[in-house]
């Protein structure tokens, strides 16, 4: 609604207008653009980490290589969990578009569980490597490995925390416009992590196991 107001100056009255229903929050377009810019900056971070691993990936310092350390069966299970979580997140987004809050919440909960299972497997792998003396300080190869895979794992952890907070907000306020926008941003973030992990699985684990 537009209301006209009149202010009087020393010479003559001045009319101005106020939009009473104007929304002063962030627009969907502005939020999505900002989040895309963030994802592009994250791409640069992972590109640098991949480049570092490419340089130091064969600097074993007379220590173990990827072929000696990697358990591809364990990594394949973790990869399956993360890829399935991307599928369940997609199902949650479909439920959101159809305004089916219970189904959306259920799919998001499954996504969270799969993400936590992935994190658990990654923590188990890190613990096992450190326990057998293959920690990040052992060689440049292992330093690059722990940095790249650990950075991705931290992103998944932050995604799980974000998802938990959103589940609470959805339970309290339902599928409102703000929660829709937040879910769309988290969806892009989650799928981005899946794409990065496919690169990690192929470039680090598969090629490393053949070294």
TrEMBL record:
<dbReference type="InterPro" id="IPR000298">
    <property type="entry name" value="Cyt_c_oxidase-like_su3"/>
</dbReference>
<keyword id="KW-1003">Cell membrane</keyword>
<feature type="transmembrane region" description="Helical">
    <location>
        <begin position="106"/>
        <end position="124"/>
    </location>
</feature>
<dbReference type="InterPro" id="IPR014206">
    <property type="entry name" value="Cyt_c_ubiqinol_oxidase_su3"/>
</dbReference>
<keyword id="KW-0249">Electron transport</keyword>
<feature type="transmembrane region" description="Helical">
    <location>
        <begin position="144"/>
        <end position="168"/>
    </location>
</feature>
<dbReference type="Pfam" id="PF00510">
    <property type="entry name" value="COX3"/>
</dbReference>
<feature type="domain" description="Heme-copper oxidase subunit III family profile">
    <location>
        <begin position="1"/>
        <end position="209"/>
    </location>
</feature>
<dbReference type="InterPro" id="IPR024791">
    <property type="entry name" value="Cyt_c/ubiquinol_Oxase_su3"/>
</dbReference>
<feature type="transmembrane region" description="Helical">
    <location>
        <begin position="189"/>
        <end position="208"/>
    </location>
</feature>
<comment type="function">
    <text>Cytochrome bo(3) ubiquinol terminal oxidase is the component of the aerobic respiratory chain of E.coli that predominates when cells are grown at high aeration. Has proton pump activity across the membrane in addition to electron transfer, pumping 2 protons/electron.</text>
</comment>
<keyword id="KW-0472">Membrane</keyword>
<feature type="transmembrane region" description="Helical">
    <location>
        <begin position="35"/>
        <end position="56"/>
    </location>
</feature>
<dbReference type="InterPro" id="IPR035973">
    <property type="entry name" value="Cyt_c_oxidase_su3-like_sf"/>
</dbReference>
<comment type="similarity">
    <text>Belongs to the cytochrome c oxidase subunit 3 family.</text>
</comment>
<dbReference type="InterPro" id="IPR013833">
    <property type="entry name" value="Cyt_c_oxidase_su3_a-hlx"/>
</dbReference>
<keyword id="KW-0560">Oxidoreductase</keyword>
<protein>
    <recommendedName>
        <fullName>Cytochrome bo(3) ubiquinol oxidase subunit 3</fullName>
    </recommendedName>
</protein>
<keyword id="KW-0813">Transport</keyword>
<dbReference type="InterPro" id="IPR033946">
    <property type="entry name" value="Ubiquinol_oxase_su3_dom"/>
</dbReference>
<keyword id="KW-1133">Transmembrane helix</keyword>
<feature type="transmembrane region" description="Helical">
    <location>
        <begin position="76"/>
        <end position="94"/>
    </location>
</feature>
<comment type="subunit">
    <text>Heterooctamer of two A chains, two B chains, two C chains and two D chains.</text>
</comment>
<keyword id="KW-0812">Transmembrane</keyword>
């Amino acid at each position: 609604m537009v209301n006209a107001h009149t202010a009087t100056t020393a010479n003559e009255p001045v009319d101005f207008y106020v939009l009473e229903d104007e929304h002063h929050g962030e627009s969907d377009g502005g939020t999505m653009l900002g989040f895309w810019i963030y994802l592009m900056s994250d791409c640069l971070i992972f590109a640098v980490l991949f480049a570092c691993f490419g340089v130091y990936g064969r600097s074993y310092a007379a220590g173990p290589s990827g072929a000696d350390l990697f358990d591809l069966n364990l990594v394949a299970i973790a990869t399956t969990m993360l890829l399935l979580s991307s599928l369940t997140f997609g199902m949650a987004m479909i439920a959101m578009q159809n305004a089916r809050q219970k189904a959306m919440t259920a799919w998001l909960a499954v996504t969270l569980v799969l993400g936590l299972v992935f994190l658990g497997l990654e923590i188990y792998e890190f613990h096992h490597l450190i326990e057998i003396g293959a920690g990040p300080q052992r060689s440049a190869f292992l330093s690059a490995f722990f940095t790249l895979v650990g950075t991705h794992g931290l992103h998944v952890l932050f995604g799980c925390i974000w998802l938990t907070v959103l589940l609470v907000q959805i339970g309290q306020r339902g599928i409102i416009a703000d929660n829709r926008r937040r879910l769309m941003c988290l969806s892009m973030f989650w799928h981005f992590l899946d794409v990065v992990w496919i690169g990690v699985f192929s470039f680090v684990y598969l090629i490393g196991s053949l070294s």
